[in-house]
Amino acid sequence: MPEREIDAGWIGRRIAQLRGERGWTLAALAGRVDLSTTQLSRIESSARQPSLGTLIELARTFGVTLSELVEDETTTVYHLTRRADLVPRQIAGGELSTLSGHFPGIEALHLALQCGSATPEAQHSGEEFLCVLAGTVGVTLNTDTLDLDRGDALQFPARLPHVISNTGEETAEVLIISTHILNSQTPGSGETRGQKRRGTEELSI
Q1: Terminus of the chain with fewer CB atoms < 10 Å: N or C?
Q2: Cα 60 to Cα 18: distance, rounded to the nearest angstrom
Q3: Cβ within 8 Å of residue 200, ≥6 positions away
Q4: Could you give the CA distance from residue 157 to residue 134 in angstroms, rounded to a whole number?
Q5: Greater pLDDT, 87 or 129
Q6: Are 138 and 146 in contact (CB under 8 A)?
Q7: Which sign, positive or negative, has the C-alpha torsion 73, 42, 176, 62?
Q8: Contact of 182 with 141, CB cutoff 8 Å
Q9: Ramachandran sector of residue 101 (left: φ over 0; alpha: ψ -120 to 50; beta: rest)
């Protein structure tokens, strides 16, 4: 019986998914498994097929079994994120949780920003949509600052330098949805989907 062919494309997407869930940059994961950032990027984009030794090391680093790492992609056509399953990662002044899955078109995040805090300045390709879920925030676009209350929404070209600040007296919660140019790396902090981002080592917005 012929050996079943491994879907190298799925393995790359799976590695990118696990990395994104943990909030690791390409450089952070590459350092943990003794690969260069370029090598890891090529694995995630399916331009390079990982060796068995690399797969074992990646599984160990992610804390999953090898079979869990390379298991077949499900045929589910949706991604469901339960609130109880969110894994917030600490950023300066708050917490950031990833809501979106492996679908490549958008990245959805939940930002909880403490009173008096602000995100680093960000600038990237695509578009950005914000909706304030709780509290009040100020969004600075270039030199303009817009005040948003609970329920307010804002959409803008993400190439504009932008900063989100908590202007209220309670923790602000913001839903952030970003679109991206495809043919790239996966969501996460720092450089994502092949785009140069500024000021986003800790926060991808």
Answers
A1: N
A2: 12
A3: 120, 122, 124, 189, 190
A4: 23
A5: 129
A6: yes
A7: positive
A8: no
A9: beta
Task: Label the pairing between strands 94-98 and 137-141.
Answer: unpaired
Q: What are the phi and psi torsion angles at 53 (to 5°)? A: -60, -40
Angle at alpha carbon of residue 40, lines to 35 and 43, rounded to 5°? 130
pLDDT tens digit sequence for 161-201: 999 999 999 999 999 999 865 433 333 333 333 333 343 33
Distance separating alpha carbons of residues 186 and 44, to the nearest angstrom: 8
Q: Is the pLDDT of residue 4 over 80?
A: no
Q: What is the pTM of this model?
A: 0.57
Structure tokens at 138: 């100020």
pLDDT value of position 195: 36
